[in-house]
Amino acid sequence: MTTKKMALITIVTASFAAMIVAAPRPAWAADPIKIGILLPLSGNFAENGQQTLTGLKMYFDEVGNKAGDRPLTLIVEDTQGKPDVAVTKARKLVQGDGVAVLTGVVTSGEAIAVNAFSRDNKVPLVLSGDAGADELTMPGPLANPYLVRTSQNGRSVASAAADWAYHKGWRKVATVGSDYAGGVDVNFAFAQAFCKLGGKVIQAEWPPIGTADFGPYLTNLDRTADAVVTFEPGADGLRLARQYSEFGLKGKLPVMDIYGGLVFESNLPQLGDATLGFYSSLFYTPMLKTPENERFVAEFQKRMNQLPANEGPNGYVGAHAVVDAIKAVNGDLSDTMKFIAALKAVKFDSPKGEISLDKYGQVIQTMYIREVQMVNGQPANVPIASYPHVDQFWPYTEAEFESFKYTYKDSKNSLTDCARLLAKK
Amino acid sequence: MTARAWTIIGCFAVLALLFMLPEVLRPYYLALVTKMLIFALFAMSLDLLLGYTGLASLGHAAYFGVAAYTIALLIVRAGVDSGLAFPVALVAAAATGALFAPLALRARGSYFLMITFALAQVVWSVAFGWRSLTNGDDGIPDVVRPDFGWSLDSTTSFYYFVLAIVGLATLLLVAIVGSPFGRALRGIRESESRMQALGYNVWRYQYVAFVLAAAFAGIAGALYAYYNRFVGPEYLYVVQSAEALIMVILGGAGTLIGPAIGAGLIVFLEDFVSSMTAHWVLVLGIIYVLVTLFAPRGLIGLVDQLRQRRVKP
User: Fold this and answer.
1) Which of 156-195 (A) contact B at CB < 8 A?
2) What angle do CA B22, B24, B27 make, to 5 degrees?
3) Is the pLDDT higher at B276 or at B233?
4) Confidence check: pLDDT of B132 > 60
5) pLDDT in tens, B248-265
6) Residue range of the domain that includes B92
7) Total structural domains in chain B?
8) Which of B166 and B13 is assigned the larger pLDDT?
9) Separation between Cα atoms, residue A421 and residue A232, nearest integer Å
10) Contact B230 A113 (CB under 8 A)
11) Residues A208, A144 share a domain
């Protein structure tokens, strides 16, 4: 064997040895953790998607796109608001890009489809967009150990509205609810909570999504009601708010707007004093005077040139939870269940107020009752009451919640029937 | 060598390529090709109506969606075996077509378009509104894939399953289109009155074409339910119908390969290009305008145009 050959062998062996020695180093320390963001950026829900994305990015930017010493890479995918596209994009993010966490998601249809994907593929899913279907985080057919939701659900906001309405002295209300799955859930939750306290829905109207003229519904309203309770997201909310004062109902029949679809922050400047005195319930208002929120609102306005409504803070909180959980497991996401446990254990103060999660991964947060008042010559949702630490089963315990005989699925036509809403199994 | 021989060689080459794909593609891309195959079948089924019979339907998603919902309801709600649900879904789609055809075939042109659209919206609103059965706009998750001794859960095995079904369906479509029946359909497309004068029962031919198109759309819908393991009212919505129309027109109506190419292109734009830019709809719009301006017979027509230009001088 020549010395040349010998040298070559030595070099090759040495480099192999070096590679083997080098291998046990924590290979992940320098690698970025990839985070997949699924949001509708085109189509009907593009605005919701854009605002959520702004919130998410604001937090990731705030921490320098790092969780502890692990850099974070964000990969954003447009779901177009279509569940089948959302699943395709989830597959792309997980199998193509190798993301460790999925977050975002706006419509409930998308959420339910991606939820099944997350469960089948054992990928953590942090719902930080609107996606408010109650069932997602409850024991039942949709239960998914890899899911947490830091954003919202339908029934908590409705329950807060019911509690406040009853204590305001209202006993008989009429509801105007958008006729789709989420609308039925929210109105059902309101009616059930209101009945339990002793109130009653005396009339339930269901305008379809995209109603151009609310005239017939407004003329039909039962004037013996103490108030009108509405749930009308999107452009429908704006139209209803406008027509409500045009029909001379403002000031005569008070309004409780669940989720604030009528008094949405981007609607207010267009509506002038049309919604002055409207009450609404939500887990957020940009008028909260906390340091977290004032900082958030200032930065959000800089980026979007408008006041945040619910989506911006939801995205921000979702990103915060993900970053905190990655830090809690020291950047090691190899044990998925450990990471999920870390997610469920997060607790922090946010623009929305104090955030924590229950054992099913659903957020526990504060519900606010707001009233539209003039602030510096501009209409604004001023907080007038708050319900801290509202969990997903409130105002019931989990056992009591499970003991009801009927669910929202078979109750669209029985909102006015308290006996049925409160029937036990 | 004759053109026919070239076509056969081309077909075999494509088939061989499709067989090899799982070896070279990563799972995500393989899943994307699977989706392209499913939508290729959907577009070809619509082309049987639009390209061959001359009936522009804006409600083709109805049959796609009815089959998908049949699969989901049977499996998730009734606990039927996943493989058994497939033929039932096919029959359900064909039956819906058989029911809708007499209503739609009373009209022609834009009226036919409007009636098919309205009928599909009826099916959509049932899926959207009948919440205790269909979950409304939340959709039905947890559709399991069939298991014929070997599991279709992996991307590769499901790809082969779809390839086999779509391949068989395409062969059937080719046979139908080339048969005397298919020729009669083309005759009807060119001139209904003349075919009538020749003694053809035009209505019956159109009826059968309508039901066949519905059945093939049903196969695609059933496969798509397995593919996503989930169904929702979007499957039945007018957007889905319109997308199928665009696939056919973009690729070239009146050929089978054209719509398949159109479907591949749309899926590519919607799922792949949309990852790069949120303005993928703009890209689609520009392509669509260019195709209608410079290739009125679709992308496949463009190939013919170029070939003829080369032959002329």
Assistant:
1) 179-182, 184
2) 55
3) B233
4) yes
5) 999 999 899 999 999 999
6) 26-241
7) 1
8) B166
9) 22
10) yes
11) no
Together in a domain, A213 and A247: yes
Q: What is the pLDDT of chain A when averaged over all its residues?
A: 90
Domain span at A316 = 33-152+289-361
Regions in chain A scoring below 70 on pLDDT = 1-30
**Pick from A189, A155, A178: which is nearest to A240 by CA?**
A178
Q: What pLDDT is stored for residue A15 in this prediction?
A: 47
- Asked, for residue A16, whether it belongs to a domain, the answer is no
The answer to whether residues A245 and A208 belong to one domain is yes
Which chain B residues are closer than 8 Å to A116 by Cβ?
141-142, 229-230
What is the DSSP pairing of strand A70-78 with strand A66-67?
antiparallel
Is the same domain home to A251 and A375? yes
Domain end (from A361, A384, A404)? A361
Residue A130 pLDDT: 92
For residue A117, list chain B residues with Cβ-Cβ distance below 8 A.
Answer: 229
Q: Residue with structure tokens 């177009």? A: A80
Residue B75 is classified by DSSP as I
The CA distance from A404 to B242, in Å, is 43
Instruction: Mark whether A335 and A374 lie in a shared domain.
Output: no
pTM of the predicted structure, to 2 decimals:
0.85
C-alpha closest to that of A111 among A45, A56, A59 = A45
Residue A27, pLDDT score: 43
Partner A contacted by B281 (CB < 8 A)? yes
Give residue-wise pLDDT tens across range B62-119. Answer: 999 999 999 999 999 999 998 899 999 999 999 999 999 999 999 988 899 999 999 9
pLDDT at position B151, please?
86
Shortest Cα distance from B304 to chain A (angstroms)? 34
Q: Check whether residue A181 and residue A274 sit in a common domain.
A: yes
Residue A331 sits in a domain whose CATH number is 3.40.50.2300
Residue B286 in domain: no
Q: How far is CA B154 from CA B22, B30, B56, B159, in A?
A: 11, 11, 37, 8
Pair A58, A114 in one domain: yes
